[in-house]
């Protein structure tokens, strides 16, 4: 096949039957593998759509600077697009981002500003605040703001949703997707719900994120926030792109279980997928008791595993996190350990909350003096 440029290859990613890993799940389970995009993630769709919409609206022109806060994947997609369209690309990235992601961003010509992962969103040092400030300081700069740019969701409404519907011949019953900026989740969900309101939308969240609690109560609970490892999943803010009204269930998964599910996908399905793909797969296992043989489950796998070779696919890193002892010799993830992990996270969260409450004032004063 012949294409005008690499951007023409974005989309139409495969839907792959996960027959081995899901053999004990009473449903047909597919993975929507977004690493087949040229930038190896679902963010190719988002970045291209947002940039082209901004061009059509006269907000940017070649030679301008595009600024964005990113966990890494949107940044890589933007850097790729900027190199082809003639834009300068400046990215603010959380220090939680893998070294592989940072190296990829720089290899594509992006200017990268690494910000502390533990900085609160309103903290001037956070990667959200730094992106906004840079867009104001750099002449001719445009802040893409993927968390609140509704073209993020529209990108998936116009592409990912129709693809899944057609690939399953309209038989999909459950859509499982990680909740981050909300674009991939909500845009796809909106399209699918319009086709069939009975399709269940399952959002996946991380422990340390505020999204599930907000969905349950409508309140932003700061006490839900604490550090976690998985990238591209969860938020410490409420993004404007998350359509909470479309979500039928919200499942929280642990760093540990997500890492092992990703490794299991590699070893049983031959799919080297990213950390949050493991989160989506873990959520499918959490749904197991609710599923029946006629169900068709689609889990979206956002990115490629090469961006996590130094983390979840590195045995030493896994040992450092205390994750390795959970992996049995036969390389199969023990579902029996699942509840133990959730309980452990609950205990750690209580300890962390108590510490925060006791030293909150001191920490704020210290951070203020450091800024």
Automatic annotation (TrEMBL):
<dbReference type="InterPro" id="IPR050214">
    <property type="entry name" value="Cys_Synth/Cystath_Beta-Synth"/>
</dbReference>
<dbReference type="GO" id="GO:0006535">
    <property type="term" value="P:cysteine biosynthetic process from serine"/>
</dbReference>
<keyword id="KW-0808">Transferase</keyword>
<keyword id="KW-0028">Amino-acid biosynthesis</keyword>
<dbReference type="InterPro" id="IPR001926">
    <property type="entry name" value="TrpB-like_PALP"/>
</dbReference>
<protein>
    <recommendedName>
        <fullName>cysteine synthase</fullName>
        <ecNumber>2.5.1.47</ecNumber>
    </recommendedName>
</protein>
<dbReference type="InterPro" id="IPR001216">
    <property type="entry name" value="P-phosphate_BS"/>
</dbReference>
<keyword id="KW-0663">Pyridoxal phosphate</keyword>
<keyword id="KW-0198">Cysteine biosynthesis</keyword>
<dbReference type="InterPro" id="IPR036052">
    <property type="entry name" value="TrpB-like_PALP_sf"/>
</dbReference>
<dbReference type="Pfam" id="PF00291">
    <property type="entry name" value="PALP"/>
</dbReference>
<feature type="domain" description="Tryptophan synthase beta chain-like PALP">
    <location>
        <begin position="8"/>
        <end position="303"/>
    </location>
</feature>
<comment type="similarity">
    <text>Belongs to the cysteine synthase/cystathionine beta-synthase family.</text>
</comment>
<dbReference type="GO" id="GO:0004124">
    <property type="term" value="F:cysteine synthase activity"/>
</dbReference>
